[in-house]
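Readers outside the structure-tokenisation community will struggle with the description of the input data as it stands. For illustration, here is how one protein appears when written out as sequence plus structure tokens:
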Amino acid sequence: MKDLQPRQLYWSLLNKKGTVIDIDIIVAYLLFITIIVLMINYSLRLTAPFTTNIESIDKEKSTLTIEGLIDTSFGINEFDELCDFNYVGVRRFSVSYEIKGFEMPHIDVNNISPASINGSVIFKRDGDTLHVYTGSQHETKSVSVEVYTREEATATNNSLEPSDSLAVYYDQFDNLVIAFDSVVSEGDVDEVIIKPLKGIVSFNVNGVNKTSIFIGNLSASDYCGTRGIIGTRTSFNRYGLINDGQTNYYAKIMGDLWWTS
């Protein structure tokens, strides 16, 4: 009777010829090759595994520092001054704003002509009455406008066509929403009149460039500084207050930084 020997376990493979190949050696060899490749890439500046995260963290910290230096309450004539500074390591720097709301009652003495731009939305305040115009110079544009207020108000269709639409309803936050869609082209101007309005009135517009939205003759969007193309980019945004010398506008302030490395 043969003696049965316990079978020993090995971390190994047998190839077709029966040669023993130790997996530990294969793993060690692959790790060695990986380390060599990483070291070559690092020496050629193709990768920087030990510094990339640190540099990224430093840039984010610097971005927070710069964000804290930017005023969030300023006069519209002071806007360009927000970009008038230098920071070590920053190649390009730009600040932009987007007005999200304005105060009523107020009177806009002047306003941009809605038909002078290819796709525009003009808000004109006349006391507690808000005139909302959509227009276009040549191109046909489908424009959607939503006006939000906490107060009771009525909306009057002054020149919308049958293909356009106007709706008044309350949203989930109990804001009164006046929403309308209009198609304008070749000097066409549509108008909706909303009154009475008081307090802060906010809005949302789709279908036109942000730079084609005006409150009176004030552009609802602008930027200062110089925008970059190359280099690492970081950004920040916050909300602020813009004053034109007579009334306040509530805006989103956004900053973009392009770093030298």
User: Anything to note?
Assistant: The chain is about 15% helix and 45% strand. The mean pLDDT is 83. The radius of gyration is 31 Å.
